[in-house]
Amino acid sequence: MSLFRSIATVGGFTMLSRVTGLMREMMIAHFLGAGAVADAFFVAFRFPNLFRSLFAEGAFNAAFVPLFTGKMTAEGTEAARRFAEQSFAVMTLVLALFVAVMELGMPWAIYGLAPGFDSVPGKMALAVDFSRICFPYLLFISLVSLQAGVLNSVGRFAAAAATPVLLNLTSMAGLWFLVPYTETAGHAMAWGTFAAGVVQFVWLARSARRAGMGLGPVRPRLTPEVKLLFKRIVPGAVGAGVYQVNLVINTMIASTVADGAVSYLNYADRVNQLPLGVVGIAIGTALLPTLSRQLKAGEAQAARTSQNRAMELGLALTLPAAVALMVIAAPVIRVLFERGSFGPNETAATASALVAFAIGLPAYVLVKVLVPGFFAREDTGTPVRVAGVAMVLNVVLNLSLAKPLGHVGMALATAVAAWANVVILGVLLARRGYFTVDERLKSKAPRIVAACAVMAGALWGGKLALWPLAQGQLMAVGILAGLVALGAVAFLAAAQLLGALSLGEIKGMVRRKRG
Fold first, then answer.
1. Please, are residues 17 and 165 in contact by the beta-carbon 8 Å criterion?
2. Kind and range of the H or E element at 149?
3. Mind listing the pLDDT tens digit for each residue in 466-477?
4. Distance (Å, whole) CA 55 – CA 149
């Protein structure tokens, strides 16, 4: 299976997951708004969601896939499956104990994550209740991530990529059906999240069995391979998850800024996650096994070429998305969320955060392209040190910008820290001879930027002319759709004229790979 076909498979399902995720956020905005209950739920879900992002999209695959692939190549499929079973057993035991400890210590954990909640009566108690319901989700989704790593290593990307869709559908169903029977809509959402973890686990367990890689129960033992796996997970979690860790830091500070700040950042981040998930996660998930196989086969130049093409594809898809989100942030937020408990003031506050997040969108994706260059060489230490520098910068900028710019300053700090992460990772890869920007990428990148500038001008003019006419919701939806179409046509036309992007060339590459 080619790299581009793998990216397309993961990207297609990730697109579906992000679309259903937006639908879920629209339901949350309608039922919970952007006040105390919404803030409490978003903080409660931040704990398991942080680990989901680190495991499902970063550290676990980064540590597990090279080890599993190497064992399968050297000792065969059965030996690799036994390694996966031992890892599964140890993870189950460790995570079950961790969940139990966190359930008991939840009040103190929430005080650490959102200290500002204590100033609003009842808000801290709600966050604790929601967290105790949601937190077991971590156990299920971590085990799901192990099974996903197994399936990705044998070239089966679809089942694992579909699991976030199940999260969104199950949690939406919980919110819809349980609201009449729970104390608040936040309680209904928390129980829906718990149920989603169970559904995802069952789905992927069945998928692994169908692929001939079912993991049976074994007695937990810390074998040398399992010890090595967990040794690599710890630094990898920080290295691959700098974006999520930065969001946690934002949450801590936002809880002290204003009531609703946590919600504004969450809704804006959800919109920003659509292109990030579709492109960044798809590229990172497909690129790591490809680089691992090429490097183990001694094909260093092929690995560098794969990374260049992944970077080119990432820039071609995320730069125009970032520019578009910055230009039409307010129309996007209004159409998606402005209904029920979510009003015009919430729209304006969320849109301003989205503009700041979008500045860093290409950087978030480029990190997904660069980090596998280290992980495929079984180097998880370097990314964690780079991530540490980025996190320190994020904290400093958060503290500096929160007072003058409020929650927008925190989103901007996250974006700047992401770009710093990219620059340092790229320089280190180049110095070690792992990555060189080839002539094709040097030629394409400035042309992509120029095409984005043309698109920005078209979108800005279209917004000035058409958006004042958006008096009702139906008219707003129609005008936003028109603006999106205008931006897409402008970018594609400019890209073709400038030679920045050739869809026919990409299709030809996929066909050659198939052949």
1. yes
2. helix 137-153
3. 998 888 778 888
4. 10
Measured distance CA(32)–CA(26) in Å, rounded: 10
Buried b (16+ CB within 10 A) or exposed e, 96-123: eeebeebeeebeebbeebbebbeeeeeb
Q: Please tell me which of 204-208, 209-213, 247-251, 434-438 the model is most confident about, judged by mean pLDDT.
A: 204-208
Evaluate whether 189 touches 28 at the Cβ level (below 8 Å).
yes
Are 419 and 360 a contacting pair, CB within 8 Å?
yes
Distances (CA, A) of 439 to 99, 305, 427, 436, 442: 50, 11, 17, 9, 5
**Residue 121 φ then ψ, to 5°:** -55, 130
**Is the overall model pTM greater than 0.85, yes or no?**
no
How far is residue 431's CA from residue 445's CA, in Å, rounded to a whole number?
21
Mean pLDDT over 495-511 rounds to 62
For residue 252, how many other CB atoms are within 10 A of its CB?
20
Count of CB atoms within 10 A of residue 511's CB? 11
CA–CA dist 360, 129 (Å, integer): 34
The whole-angstrom separation of Cα 294 and Cα 274 is: 30
Contact 436, 304 (CB under 8 A): yes
Positions of E strands within 307-371: none
Measured CA to CA, the distance from residue 348 to residue 406 in angstroms comes to 13
pLDDT at 326 over 90: yes
Distance of CA 509 to the CA centre of its chain: 27
Q: Over range 399-424, report the average pLDDT.
A: 88
Average pLDDT over residues 138-157: 81
Nearest to 255 by CA among 409, 407, 448, 117: 117
pLDDT confidence tier of residue 282, bands split at 50, 70 and 90: low
40 contacts 187 by C-beta, under 8 angstroms: no
Give me the chain's average pLDDT, please: 80
- CA–centroid distance for 7 within its chain: 15
E strand spans, 227-379: none
The residue type at 222: L
Q: Are 311 and 366 in contact (CB under 8 A)?
A: yes
Residue with token string 């903080």: 43
Report CA 53 to chain centroid distance, whole Å. Answer: 6
Quick one: pLDDT at residue 506? 45
User: Closest Cα to residue 447, out of 484, 488, 497, 486?
Assistant: 497
Contact assessment for residue 470 and residue 331, using Cβ atoms and an 8 Å cutoff: yes
C-alpha closest to that of 371 among 237, 248, 225: 237
Copy the structure tokens of residue 447: 């042309």
- Vertex 289 angle, CA 287 and 295, to 5°: 95
| Rounded Cα distance, 158 and 54, in Å | 20
* Nearest-angstrom CA–CA distance, 497 and 235: 44
H/E segment holding residue 194: helix 185-210
Q: What is the pLDDT of residue 359?
A: 93
